[in-house]
């Protein structure tokens, strides 16, 4: 499947992601959904999805850094040498992607966002931006409560009328986005069963791999 580039996630893609993410490598999910593995991981974090303990305990993950573990080169300085110093960013220099405060753009999921500041820490430039529909809600009703989200009543992310916005708990948002409420039960069961089967197949394969050769 050809990979999507900067395209919004469809409801069915999100359902597959919710059903399979916990026990499926991002590379396999990327192949299934036609997405870059990095995009799969990013969307999963946005949805609050996590890999299962069983997945993280697999042998292929033993080389990953654990919390509190130090890198082998901690405290060492690196100098690439050559003419690299001439092309490095200097203090105060702006990247070519810089845009002024007030700029508006639509993200890959179809949400309009606006640049509201220009002083986010390095590597955290996303903090310079805010979603316009959230700002509009707050102009009328005040700050969005903790663990709540502002959504579009009619599902149209370009319809920024205040009467089309609704603030709901994230738990309710998760329920509404669940494949069990979005799709007919046979479809939801099929998606769920596929995830169960994939996990079972992988467990059998791992068990065979761990058995001593006879």
Automatic annotation (TrEMBL):
Top-level lineage group: Bacteria
Keywords, sorted A to Z: Endonuclease, Hydrolase, Nuclease
Region span, Disordered: 65-104
Keyword GTP-binding: no
Compositionally biased intervals (Polar residues): 70-79
SUPFAM superfamilies with a match to the protein in the record: His-Me finger endonucleases
Protein name in UniProt: HNH endonuclease
Organism placement in taxonomy: Bacteria, Pseudomonadati, Pseudomonadota, Gammaproteobacteria, Chromatiales
């Amino acid at each position: 499947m050809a990979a999507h580039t900067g395209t919004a996630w469809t409801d069915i893609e999100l359902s597959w992601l919710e059903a399979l993410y916990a026990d499926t490598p991002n590379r396999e999910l990327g192949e299934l959904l036609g997405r870059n593995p990095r995009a799969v991981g990013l969307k999963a974090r946005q949805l609050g999805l996590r890999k299962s303990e069983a997945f993280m305990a697999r042998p292929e993950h033993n080389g990953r850094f654990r919390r509190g573990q130090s890198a082998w080169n901690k405290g060492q300085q690196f100098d690439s040498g050559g003419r690299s110093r001439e092309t490095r960013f200097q203090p105060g220099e702006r990247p070519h992607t810089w845009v002024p405060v007030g700029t508006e753009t639509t993200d890959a999921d179809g949400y309009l966002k606006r640049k509201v500041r220009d002083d986010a820490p390095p590597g955290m430039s996303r903090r310079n931006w805010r979603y316009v529909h959230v700002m509009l809600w707050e102009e009328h009703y005040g700050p969005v409560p903790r663990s709540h989200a502002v959504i579009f009543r009619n599902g149209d992310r370009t319809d920024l009328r205040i009467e089309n916005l609704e603030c709901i708990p994230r738990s309710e948002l998760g329920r509404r986005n669940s494949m069990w409420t979005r799709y007919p039960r046979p479809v939801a069961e099929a998606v769920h069963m596929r995830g169960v089967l994939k996990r079972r197949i992988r467990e059998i394969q791992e068990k065979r791999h761990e058995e001593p050769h006879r």
